[in-house]
Specification:
156 residues, alpha/beta, UDP N-Acetylglucosamine Acyltransferase, domain 1, 2 helices, 18% helix, 28% strand
């Protein structure tokens, strides 16, 4: 019964983190779901975190001054549920770390076991399957490096 109550609290907190109209409430809700969220973080509406409700095998860490745009999906766990594929395909459980000052564009998808480096930028709609180096701009499906933040013409 304790596990069920904890799972319901976590699921509710994640729902609030993705849908509440005030950013401060979204940030506090994500923390109460058991994830590490730094200072001065912006979480856009529609954030969705997929993980295991009844286990602590997954983790999410968001650094300070991170901006996460609308409709971002962070996948910490994935499996084929009750499909017969479950006997042939391993479940994936992992972590995601988004380091300080990173910016995640609208609609991006971040898959398990990925680290987004410090001050990196993930373009809108990108599917991040591998680590992103610090101060690197990535975009596409799968996300590929475009240039460094220092080389970007809009920074000059």
């Amino acid at each position: 019964m304790i596990r069920l109550g904890r799972a319901i609290r976590k699921k509710s907190a994640k729902w609030i983190a993705g849908s509440f109209p005030l950013n401060g409430v979204r940030v506090r809700a994500l923390r109460s779901a058991g994830y590490r969220v730094g200072r001065s973080v912006y979480l856009g509406e529609g954030l969705h975190v997929t993980d295991e409700l009844f286990s602590d095998v997954c983790s999410l860490s968001i650094g300070d001054r991170v901006a996460v745009a609308q409709r971002v999906m962070i996948v910490l766990a994935s499996h084929p549920n009750e499909s017969t594929l479950r006997t042939h395909v391993q479940s994936v459980y992992g972590h995601v770390a988004i380091e300080d000052d990173a910016w995640i564009g609208a609609g991006a998808i971040i898959l398990p076991n990925v680290t987004i480096g410090r001050a990196a930028i993930v373009g809108a709609g990108a599917v991040v399957t591998k680590d992103v180096a610090p101060r690197t701009i990535v975009a596409g499906n799968p996300a590929r490096p475009l240039r460094s933040v220092d080389e970007a013409s809009w920074m000059k």
